[in-house]
Design brief:
This protein is of the alpha/beta class. Helix content is 38%, strand content 15%. It has one domain: Metal-dependent hydrolases (TIM Barrel). Strand 1, helix 1 and strand 2 form a beta-alpha-beta unit.
């Protein structure tokens, strides 16, 4: 199997080490035809992309697409949005989503939750259930439902590292994702998808 695109890359706009141009240059050297620049969503308080930088990134990517049009590569702007609550809300608003070509969704520690209930359930209960069985079944159900609500609410292209930091019912999530055309990422760094 030959890979033709990488749709989950980060830059200095979040916690990557290279610029957008650096990522594009590496993609060309690897023979890729597409690359998506998908920095972490703005709700991540440690390394999320700043909201005001997303329009700047859009302009830079449009300029680079013009510059590299004869190199056989397409550059996409995306964001790896964060789930912020059990209602399926994410840390991207409609205006920012409109600027993107691709929208990813993941669960990450270090995100500002949308409510006190989300703080307790998503960001306190999930880490605890990794070590203690208390609440594991309920957390699995709540996490799965939150992702399903999100993919039915937003144009999510794929879910990043599903089940890695917050356990989900992969089969139930896959069925729901298939209905709306959302893919589940296979990520070699996070080996939870089975």
């Amino acid at each position: 199997m030959k890979l033709y695109g990488d749709y989950h890359t980060h830059t200095v706009y979040s916690h990557g080490t290279g610029t957008i141009r650096d990522n594009v240059e590496v993609a060309i050297k690897k023979g890729l035809k597409e690359i998506a620049i998908c920095d972490h969503g703005p709700g991540h308080y440690l390394y999320g992309v700043k909201r005001h930088n997303i329009p700047i990134m859009r302009k830079e990517i449009d300029k680079l697409n013009e510059e590299y049009k004869d190199k056989g590569i397409k550059i996409l702007l995306g964001v790896e949005a964060n789930i912020t609550g059990f209602d399926g809300n994410i840390d991207m608003n409609e205006d920012l989503i409109k600027l993107t070509d691709i929208l990813l969704l993941g669960y990450h520690y270090g995100v500002t939750p949308s409510s006190f209930k989300a703080t307790l359930g998503l960001y306190i209960m999930n880490p605890i259930t990794k070590f203690l069985p208390v609440g594991r079944k309920k957390a699995l159900e709540l996490n799965t439902n939150a992702f399903i609500k999100a993919i039915n609410k937003y144009p999510i292209s794929f879910i990043t590292h599903p089940g890695s930091k917050a356990k989900v019912d992969i089969r139930q999530l896959a069925r729901a994702a298939g209905k709306v055309g959302t893919a589940l990422e296979i990520n070699s760094k996070h080996s939870q998808l089975s």
